[in-house]
Amino acid sequence: MNGKIAATITSEDSFRPELLNPFVHHLELGTTYEKIKTGLFTILLLPVRVVIICSLLIAGWMIAIVGLWGLTEDDLREKPVTGWRRKLTGLVCFLGKTTYTAGGLHMVIKGRQATRSEAPILVIAPHSTFFDGGIIYVTGFPSIIVRRESGANPYIGKLINFTQPVYVWRDDPDSRHNTIKEIISRATSDLDWPQILIFPEGTCTNRSCLITFKPGAFYPGVPIQPVCIRYPNKLDTVTWTWEGPSALKLLWLTLTQVYSYCEIEFLPVYTPSEAEKRDPKLFANNVRNVMAKALGVPVLDYTYDDCRLMTRAKEMNLPHANSLVEIQKLRRRLGLDQSNIEEKLLEVAVDNKNFRRTTLAMFANYLNLPSTSPAVHQLFRYLDTDASGVIDFREYLLGVLATCKKRNVLETIKIACRIYDRDGVGRLSLDDFAKVLNQTLAMRVNEAVDVFHQIDRRGLNYVTFENFKSYAEKKAEFASLFSISKEEKFKSKNGDLCPEYEKKVE
C-alpha cells in the first residue's frame, strides 16, 4: 500500500474509506506457473529440506541439553552462563543460521550490531512472522521475553532456556511488574548478561506500518539498538497475522520456494534523553519514529488489544468490524465513552424506523453532539461506507456496545435483540431475528431462519430473546454461549486471538 496514503491515518482529522489494517494478510498463488512450481517442489524439494532442518534442530537441541546440564532455573536467572557453556551458544547460532539457509531463507545483514556495553537491549520491528525468530541466531543468542509455558516444552524449551530468557508468567497477577523489574535488572547489571531482544509491538502485523510500541523495553532507560526486519520477496509467504494463512500453510509455501530473503538492518544506537528516561512511552514513540523512517512506513496507534477487538468483531460479524478500532478512538475524542449516550439510548423509546435511515444531522442529534464537528463528520463517514448520506444507526449501536465493554456473546445477543426490536416490546420479526444472529454469531441467514421457525412453533411470527435463550440452552451447537467466556470461545475456534511468537511485555 502506498505509504503516503497510509500515513494520512495518523492525522486526527484525516479520513479515507479504506482503513489500513495491519492485522490482515492475503496470500494466494496467482498464476498457473506458481501452482505447478509449488506442486513440483512439494514433491522434490520439500522432503529434502524437512529432513535437513529436522536434523539440524535435533543437533541444536542436543547441544542445548549439554549446555544446560547441571543448571537449575534459579541458576539461569541469577547469573549469566560462562566458560564452555557460553562457547556452545556460538555453535547453536551456527546451526540455527544453517537451518534457515537449508530452508531457502537467506539473511542479508546491514549495519553493525552494537555490543552489550553499547546497547544492552535490541528492539526488533516490525514483527510479522514466526520466521523472525531466526534473528536470535544472527544476534548471538540474546535473551528473549517468553511465556513460561514455552520454556516448559520438552523440545523447543531447551533452546529457549539456553538463551536465559526473561519469563512471563500469565497466571501471576504481578507478572508484568516482575518482568519489567527483571529487564531493568539485567540491562543495568555489571554482569556479562546476553543482550535482551524484544519485539515491542507485541503481536504480528503485515509490515504495512509500525503499531504502538509497548514500553517494557524502554523502562530501564538505557541505550537501545533498533533493528529493522524486511522480507523483500515478490511472493510474501511469511507474514502471519490474525486474518490470513495458517502457520502450516506459510511454512509449506516458504519451504517450496527456491529461495526467500530476509533483510536485517542494525540502526545506530539510540541513547535516550533525560526526558525519555523519565517517560518510557515517549522513549518508545521516538524510537518507533526512527524505525518507521528507516523502513519507509507510517506509524499507527494500534495495539495488541486493538487486534483482539478486531478479531472479536470479525468473528461475530459485527457491523463495521474493520473500522471499529477507529470508531472507538473517535468516540473517546468526542467524550462518548464518558457520557455513555449509546447505553442510554437503549433505555428510551426512540423511533426504530428513524434509526434505520439516519442522516448526519439525526446522527449528531442522537449522540447530543454538534453536527458541525469535524470529528462527528469523520465518525459518520466511517459508517457511511457507500457514501449515500444515510446510515443504519442500529448497526452503529451494536458495533459500539458489543466492543466498548467486556460483554460475553449472550449479553451481546440480548443487546442486539433490543436494538433490532422495531416496536420496542421485545418481539423480533423473522427478518430482524435473522439479522441479530447474523451480526452476533455470524450465522447464515438461512440457518437463522431455521432457528426462528424452530422457536416459533405456535406460528406467532415473532420471537423474544428469552425464547431464543430457552431454545439455545437445549441445543449443543449453542452450548458455548453458556459454558465459556467470549474470549475462550474465539480462542478455542481460532487458536490464539493474535499470533504471537513470544509473549511480549506491556
Properties at a glance:
506 residues, alpha/beta, Recoverin, domain 1, 2 domains, 7-stranded mixed β-sheet, 26 helices, disordered N terminus, disordered C terminus, calcium ion binding, Plipid/glycerol_acylTrfase, lipid metabolism, transmembrane, LPCAT1-like
Write the layout of secondary structure elements.
Layout (H helix, E strand, L loop, with lengths): L2 H5 L24 H13 L1 H23 L4 H6 L4 H20 L2 E6 L10 E5 L9 H4 L4 E5 H4 L4 H7 L3 E3 L6 H13 L8 E3 L25 E7 L16 H9 L4 E7 L7 H5 L1 H16 L8 H13 L7 H11 L1 H4 L1 H5 L6 H5 L3 H7 L7 H10 L9 H11 L5 H11 L10 H9 L6 H11 L9 H8 L7 H4 L2 H9 L12
Parallel strand pairs: 1-7, 2-5, 2-6, 3-4, 3-5
Antiparallel strand pairs: 6-7
Helix pairs in contact: 3-5, 3-8, 14-19, 20-21, 22-23
In terms of DSSP E residues, the strand content is: 5-15%
Rounded Rg = 26 Å
SS-based class: alpha/beta
Distance, first to last CA? 29 Å
CA-based shape = globular
Helicity, in percent? Answer: 40-55%
Tell me the major beta sheet.
7 strands, mixed
Count of spatially separate domains:
2
Mean pLDDT across the residues is 86
Number of strands: 7
Q: Number of DSSP helices?
A: 26
Give the low-pLDDT segments: 1-18, 485-506
Main sheet: strand order: 1-7-6-2-5-3-4
Task: Report a brief summary of the structure.
The chain is an alpha/beta fold and 506 residues long.
